[in-house]
Write a structure and sequence with these properties.
- It is a single chain.
- With 374 residues, this protein is α/β, with parallel strands linked by helices.
- The chain folds into three domains: 170 residues, 3-Layer(aba) Sandwich (Rossmann fold); 62 residues, Helicase, Ruva Protein, domain 3 (Orthogonal Bundle); 126 residues, Zinc Finger, Delta Prime, domain 3.
- It is built from 17 helices and seven strands.
- A five-stranded parallel beta sheet has the order 2-3-4-1-5, covered by helices on one side. A two-stranded parallel sheet has the order 6-7.
- The longest helix is centred in the last third of the chain and has 26 residues.
- The N and C termini lie far apart (77 Å).
Length: 374
């Protein structure tokens, strides 16, 4: 049986051009390589799964490439690139500071720094989760980081920049990686699905992208999970069932009930949601997000902020046209108050039901207020 490789590893970018969602950082690194303005220490920081370690590896491979292209991308054919791709390169050294955070680990690394590279110009030392180093390990590393040999380049990666000593930060060029947008994740997942001959509905990929919360690695892991469940045909219904995500249609039905002032119907829909095993707190947060999405659909300027596609986007536009701005703002306030007070409430179901009842009465209250003003 052929060994299965997860998508996060199989489709890991190997050139700057294939890195998703970080154009400013990849452009800056390429310009530095092109003009030969390489710093001796870099700090890559940002949320998990956004390409920090991947970019560090590509950077290490590019500066050692023997046949660098005009577009400042590695050739992936020279001995240096091949040894890197086959994990046998002596030019790149990776240290996981989460499990190697002692003074002895850093001293061992410092001893290696003195050895020049066998192929290529630079030895690159990538220290992942660098914020996990102990205080004494940071101190042992400080002098080498400030004045390394000409052939040594350090790339530090972390998800928690605020935990790193200012003396370390002052010696590094700092690159802040952004969360990857839902649009970029969707586009990349579409490419992966095409490569794997998987037919995926746009709405399904949108759910995966939202669930990933800006992390491409998480998105690819979720994608693999859904493929295992659905096979070669990924549908929206199967995706929300597998990921235990509440269907958009529940929020659309609830909003219709709110507009009609149907308290009984509203409470029955909420009861059905609970019976299906969904968490009430997640539900009320989702309802607040739904009202926010309806509100931004009220204006052609802000509708571009809506991060859903296909038929669901059209449904949002249609329902937004039926809701007044005052209703949506009031509903958002009730949902937000419920979210804030949820954890401290002794009867959480009642708290959510009370918020739903208030929202269901909101349209009538607004009409009465308007009549009184006339």
């Amino acid at each position: 049986m052929e060994n299965y490789i997860v998508s996060a590893r199989k489709y890991r970018p190997d050139t700057f051009g294939s890195v998703v969602g970080q154009p400013s950082i990849t452009s800056t690194l390429k310009n530095a390589i092109r003009s030969n303005h390489l710093a001796h220490a870099y700090l890559f920081c940002g949320p998990r799964g956004v390409g920090k370690t991947t970019s560090a590896r590509i950077f290490a491979k590019t500066i050692n490439c023997l046949n660098l292209g005009a577009d400042t991308e590695p050739c992936n054919q020279c001995e240096s690139c091949l040894s890197f791709s086959e994990n046998r390169s002596y030019n790149i050294h990776e240290l996981d500071a989460a499990s190697n955070n002692s003074v002895d680990d850093i001293r061992s690394l410092v001893d290696k720094v003195r050895i020049p590279p066998q192929i290529g110009k630079y030895s690159v030392y990538i220290i992942d989760e660098v914020h996990m180093l102990s205080q004494s390990a940071f101190n042992a590393f400080l002098k080498t980081l400030e004045e390394p040999p000409a052939h040594a380049i350090f790339i530090l990666a972390t998800t928690e920049k605020h935990k790193i000593l200012p003396t370390i930060l002052s010696r590094c060029q700092i690159y802040d990686f952004n969360r990857i947008t839902i649009t970029d994740i969707e586009k990349y997942l579409r490419e992966i699905a095409s490569k794997q001959n998987v037919n995926a509905e746009p709405e399904a990929l949108n759910v995966i992208a939202q669930k990933a919360d800006g992390a491409m690695r998480d998105a690819l892991s979720i994608f693999d999970q859904v493929v295992s469940f659905c096979g070669a045909n990924i549908t929206y219904e199967d995706t929300i069932a597998n990921l235990n995500v509440l269907d958009y249609n529940y929020y659309f039905k609830l909003t219709d009930s709110f507009q009609k002032g149907d308290i009984s119907g509203t409470l029955m829909i909420f009861s059905e949601i609970l019976d299906k095993g969904f968490n009430a707190h997640h539900f009320i947060m989702g309802l607040g997000q739904h009202f926010r999405d309806l509100l931004i659909c009220k204006d052609v300027v802000t509708v571009q902020l809506l991060e859903v596609g296909g038929e669901i986007r059209e449904h949002y536009k249609k329902q937004a046209a039926d809701c007044t701005v005052n209703f949506l703002i009031g509903a958002l306030q009730f949902a937000s108050d419920c979210d804030i007070n949820y954890k401290s409430s002794s009867n959480q179901r009642f708290l959510v039901e009370l918020a739903l009842v208030r929202i269901a009465q909101l349209e009538e209250s607004l009409k009465k207020k308007q009549l009184m003003m006339q």
